Amino acid sequence: MKTRFSSPIAAIAFFVGFLAQAEEVRLYSERHYDADKEVFSEFTDKTGIEVKVVKAGANELIARLKSEKNSPQADLYITSDAASLTKASKAGLLAPLKSELINAAVPQALRGKQDTWAAFTMRGRILVYAKDRVKGQLPKSYQDLASPEYRGNLLIRSSTSKYNRSLLASIIAIQGKAKAIQWATGMKNNFARPPQGNDRDQVRAVAKGIADYAIVNTYYLGLLKNGESQEDRDAHAAVGVVLPTSGDRGTHVNISGGGIIKGAKNSSNARKLLEYLVSEKVQKKYQRLTSEYAVSTKVEHEPLQKAWGEINPDLESIHDLGIYDQEAQKIFNMVGWK
Ligand SMILES: [Fe+2]
Fold it and tell me: How many angstroms is it from 13 CA to the middle of ligand 1?
């Protein structure tokens, strides 16, 4: 069909009108994985809904959402931390999801208490050890690692990482503040070196013999195993995995999840995208591409994940991570965990 315009202005008006009608969903996301790009592009192919992503840190995005409260510029807020979703929800920035599909796919413990967010992937913060050097009894819990037995033999990144804040926040939730201070002090006393580098660097350092033990997020093991460098693949092969317990609970886990922005222009598209992310197909895909755990219990774990052992995730602490986030940072500062 040929369209004729009476003037250039009419042509522009038509074009602007066309753009306004195009289906879209606007994301504020702190995730930085190529897998997301692939998943979003498949979502667009399937639904015709374009996915626009603005990436930044979780707190920066919350600040933006607050400043745009009267005229939201995003439809879906995605973070890789339950604490940030709890914070956004408490600030009144998120609307109820009201989705039967999400309720059916995601266990209740991995959804916001006010139905304002849902997780779509999960990860554990776990222990790796040098397979060739560690013989005999392995530590079983995060608490074990803080004992003097491991003096000078432990690697973990800096306390500025939210992965560590989240771990300590869970320990405050499980054991209380006094025990959490003891734990952080014991851990710090056991460091083989001042915290440096990211999680992958800790595994590389174990492989190099700098220490026998390190704490890292599960999916980094997948990234090393499938890495481009032979050195990284060797580092992965050199370590064994322990899924530690915490007090009377299972392994510390955190999630990636999303919540629909209150007053969002494209809230139904945002819901469709979140429903897509928790669909079995995408859950399997995330496990394969990023080694994150599916949240849907219908999805079988990948062979690599099974090789780590059967995870008993501490889901009880998920909703407390946002409550103890600040307290955790204070304790890190107090005990001198840089
Ligand atoms: Fe990460």
Answer: 44
